[in-house]
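RETRY 2/3 - previous attempt timed out on the joint model. Re-submitting the same 508-residue input unchanged.
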Amino acid sequence: MDRQWTRAIWAAAMMAMTAPAASAQTPPACSAEAKPALPAALAGWATPAPLAAATDRDGVARATLVPGKAATVTLLPTPTVHYPLQPEKPGGSVSHGGLLAFTIARAGGYRVALGSAAWIDVVRDGKAVVSTAHGHGPACSTIRKMVDFSLEPGDYVLQISANATAELTVLIAPLP
Amino acid sequence: MPVRLLLAAAALAASAIAVAAARDDTAAAKVELGRRLFYDADLSVDGTMACATCHEQRRGFSDGNATHPGVTGAPGRRNVPGLANVAARAALTWGDPRVRTLEAQAAIPLFGTHPIEMGMKGHEAEIGKRLGADACYRAQFRAAFPSGGVIDATQVVTAIAAFQRTMISRDTPYDRYRAGRQDALSASQRAGLRAFATRGCTACHAGTDLTDDRFHAIAPPAANARDTGLAEITGRAADAGRFKTPGLRNVAVSAPYLHDGSAPMLADAIRRHDTARGLDDATIAALADFLTGLTDAAFLHDPRLSLPPPGCPRPLSPAAAPDAGRASAPRG
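RETRY 2/3 succeeded.
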C-alpha cells in the first residue's frame, strides 16, 4: 500500500488513541461482603454443576441444561463447533463456544443468565427466538449478562458463541 | 489513419479498460473483504468482539446499550453511533475532530485504550497470523490488494472503510417526502417536520443526513461532567460539553441517545436540548413522530450489508483465489 496513505491513517488514529484518560470510568469494586442476595429465581446461580457443551446437533442431547439449575459449562474452541444456525455474533477463531439442550415445560418468560458477555441464540426448529430484553446482572453478583425470552413448551438448543474462555456459568430461570 | 496508429490506439484503449476493470475488481474485492472483516471477532484480542458487536444493522449499525463495554469488561465511554451514510461525514467521532477518515476511525476501536474496546494494542501481529491462517482470507486479501504485502492492520482498516462506504441510506419516508411524495409522512410527522424547522433543530441537524458535522453543546455542561467532549481535545474551556451533532437517519431504532446514552427515548433526547425548552408535550410528540420517518427499512435489512454466511464468499475468481477451494473451518 502507498506509504504516505498508511502514515496518514495511523497518524490520525494515534492522536485519537492517545487522548487523555482523565474521564475513563472504572466499574465498582466488589468485595466478598458486597455480594448481593440474588432473587429467588436466580438462587441456583451460586451452586453450578459441571456440564460439557456439545460441538454439534448430534451430541447436544448429552449436554442438557435443566432450567433453574446453574451449570459451569465447558466450551470448545469455536472452529470445532458446528452451530445448527449461524450465530448472529459469531466468535473469532480464538474464542470458545458450544451447544446445550434444554426443555421448557411451561410457557412463559425465561431469563438466561451468563457469567460473561458471550453471545447466545435460543434456537427452536431451526429458527432463533427473538429476545424480549437484555441487561446486566446485579452488581457484584458475577452475572455479567441476562437475556430474556418468551418461550413455549418444547425442546430448545442454546447456542453459545464468542466466549473468551473455555468455561462459562449459565443459568436458565423462569421470570417471576 | 495508419494501421499501426490504429492498433496502438486500440491497445491503449484496451489497456485503459483493463486498468479500470482491475480497479473496479479491486474495489469490489475490498468491499467484500471489508464486510467479512466487519463481522469478524478475530479482530479482537480474545475473539469476542467484531465491529458488528456494537454496530448492529437492525439498529442502523448502532447499539442498544448506553455504552458498550470492551473486551476487558471496562465500561465504554460513549454511545455507539449509527453508520448510515458514514462516508459523507466530515467528523467521525463524538468528540475528536482530528479523525476525518474512515480508515483512521476504524483503527481506534481496534487499538485504542481510551477506552479499551477490541484490545488489539500490543497484539498487532496476531491480525496477520489469524487471518493469514484462513485460505479464504488469503485469497480475499490478494484480490483486494494485488500489489501484495503481508496481511496487516493497514489493509484491514482500508477494507473495512471500503465496506463502510457502501452503507448508503437514501430510502426513508422523509426522503420520499422530499422527493415530492406528500403522503410519505403522516400529518403528525409533517407537523413534527415543521416544528423541527421552526424550533431551531435544523441549525445543527442540517442537510440530507440531518447533521452539520460540527460540535455543539445542547445545554450548559454539568460542572462535574466526567466527559468534557471537544474540550478534551482542544483544551479550551469553551469547548466543554460540545459533542458532534449526530446524524438522525434511523434514529428511531438506535435508542438510547446522546453522547453517553443517557436519554432512553426520543422524547427524552429532545427535551435535553436547550432549544426544546418550553415546548409542549404535543410538539415533542410530533417531533419524535417526525424522527420515526427517518427510518430506512431497506437499509436495516439490506443483505449486502449483513453478516456474511460462513466460509468463502462466492464467486471468487479462480485467478484471485487459487486455494479458495479449501474452505476455512466453520466459524460458527
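Chain A touches chain B through 46 residues (CB under 8 Å). Closing ticket.
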